[in-house]
Structures are given as C-alpha cells and as structure tokens.
Amino acid sequence: LFTIYINDLSSACENIYLFADDAKMFKIIKCPDDLKSMQLNVINMQNWLNVWRMIPNVDKCCVLKFGNKYNNIYEMWDSAQVKQVIQVVKVIKDLGVFVDDKLTFRDHIYSKVKLANTMLGIINRHFRLIDKEAYLCFYKGLVIPHLEYAVQVWCP
User: Fold this and answer.
1) Which of 51, 53, 100, 105 could be stapled to 91 by a disulfide with Cβ–Cβ 3.0 to 4.6 Å?
2) Dihedral angle computed from the Cα positions of residues 103, 104, 108 and 114, in that order, rounded to the nearest 10 degrees
3) Are residues 7 and 48 located together in one domain of the fold?
4) What is the largest CA-CA distance in the chain?
5) pLDDT digits over 3-36, tens only?
6) How far are the Cα atoms of 46, 87, 91, 97, 150 from residue 156, in angstroms, in the given order?
7) CA 92, CA 9: separation in Å to the nearest integer?
C-alpha cells in the first residue's frame, strides 16, 4: 500500500529510484549548476512530502559522493521546520550490500566473511560428529549464501 502511495514521487523529482519504502536520488555533477539542480531536486521532494503531509526523517537521509571534485551541502527541513544538513557518509548499506565512496566493497566483504566464519564456527561446534554429506548440506545452506549474496554487484 505504501508503494502505491509514493508511486508519484518520481514525477515530482528527477533521477530518483524507488524500491519498497526507500528512495535514491542521483545526479552526475559536472559543473556547479548541477549542484544547484540536485538541491532543487531535494526541495522538490520536500515539497511533495509537504503536499502529502509526510515528514522526512532527516537523520535517515544521507549523501554518498563518488569522487572529490565538487563539495556541496544539501539541506532539508525536519518535522519542526528547522533546516538541517543532510549528512555525507563514506559507506552506506543498501539492500544488504555495503557500498563505499571508492566502490571497493571492503566493508561488505569483511562483514560477509565474518558472518560466514561465525556460521562455520557454529556448524563445527554443534555438529562435530556428523558425516561428510550432512556437513556439506549445512555448509551449503548456512555459509555459502552469505558469501554469494549480491556477488554480481561487488565482484562482477
């Protein structure tokens, strides 16, 4: 139902992707005018939210910037109508994948290897005396999915 409710947000904003209850705005910044265009896009989203009487959670909003040519501060208004700066982050978790500003995916790989090792430790601790076939079933069911999740994104 929420997806139907926000379906027209893409008509109010340029360069926006919607997925479930999440929205991603993007813009290639080639000149200072593109920075203004992006801020205008944020304002358009804010206006759309005001029309539908929705309040953004500015603390959950962030900017992930690739490259360091242009720096800009993007602003939104919170529920008390106070202008707040949208935080700039180096790493963000999106759909279960950690994306960093250099696109190295180091944090994602580290977290998945750690989780897979944890699962492997649980299997080794609790199922020491099982046969090879059962062990392989546990391994394929509990360890491999963590290592292979979204591998097309972070290791094409």
Assistant:
1) 100
2) 180
3) yes
4) 66
5) 777 888 888 999 999 887 888 999 999 998 999 9
6) 36, 30, 20, 14, 10
7) 23
Q: Tell which residue, 62, 69, 12, 4, has the closest CA to residue 35.
A: 69
Per the prediction, the chain carries an average pLDDT of 89
Contact (CB, 8 A) for 23 and 57: no
Nearest Cα to Cα of residue 42 among 66, 17, 2, 77? 77
Q: What's the domain count of the chain?
A: 2
Query: Is 129 part of a structural domain of the chain?
Result: yes
Range of the domain at 80: 2-89
- Enclosing H/E stretch for 16: strand 16-19
Query: Which amino acid would we find at residue 33?
Result: D
Are 149 and 112 a contacting pair, CB within 8 Å?
Answer: yes
Identify which of 59, 63, 60 has the alpha carbon closest to the alpha carbon of residue 90.
63
Q: Provide the pLDDT for residue 1.
A: 62
Residues found in the chain: 156
Is it the case that residue 80 has pLDDT exceeding 90? no
Once rounded to an integer, what is the mean pLDDT over residues 55-72?
86
Q: Are the C-beta atoms of 71 and 49 separated by less than 8 Å?
A: no
